[in-house]
Predict the 3D structure of the following.
Amino acid sequence: MPLKRWCKALSYWGALCLGCLFLCTLMGSCVHAETCSVDDTKTRVCLPHSAQRIIALSPGAAELVYSVGAGAQMVASVDYTDYPEAARHLPSVGGSSELDLERLLQYRPDLVIAWQSGNSPQQIRQLKQLGIPVFTLEPQELRDVSTSLERLGVLTGHASEGQDKAAQFSNGIAQLRQHYSNLSPVRMFYEVWNQPLMTINHQQIINQVIELCGGRNIYAALTPLVPRMSKEAVLADNPDAIVSGGEGEHNDSWLNDWKQYSQLSATAHHNLIFIPPDLLDRPTLRLLQGAQMLCQQLDAARHRLAGNP
């Protein structure tokens, strides 16, 4: 082929390729993959891109968002959001059970993370009707904490960190289960609230922590998720350990009520145990820390019951 015709052909195909490249670039700017995940109500939630303006409707949900590295994408949360430290400075859109929807809308969220049993169903429906993507969480088992971290990682553009934190939680729980779950059981009462006196049954995620630590919740078989108890009933059932959270991270005053009953096995064996409430009550990454503390404390109680110092 003569050189002149060769050059002309190259120019033609070069222009055609550049045209194709331009067309692909243009199409790429118009068509892109959605970011999708399935929440705990089995609803598939899809976003046009990873969430950049997130509002969490529970302190635990906010904590999970920070755990996957998306804290900078949070624009608001609810009352009592206090962990990590940066979360304390988020503006509030009301209480978990009663939101200020007008204030919430002012923050123009592209993702709202709801708490199924804590938020008003009517208000959540209103948000959805307004076209706001709502991703609902309700971890009921220990493995749900891991999947929550993974799914939030995907929706916020931090999939890798979400997977890493999920693996950290799962591996830590597995190690505790292997070490403690087959030891001699410790009959225990978990005090989730003191006035009125309340505990938890087998359906609550805290009960799974108790079991992996080799504890036996004496009220696991009761029907309500959070049964109300009388102090007389607890004294009659005589648990070998009492675990309480209290009203603050360092406030163990609820245990003082049990110290006056010297005939109580838990009191007689010095098995009145305080665990900071947020470490067990919130189904977040820190639940692993709470589980580690509970396992260690119940093991010490186990030794005292056996007559070992």
Notes: The chain has twelve helices and 14 strands.
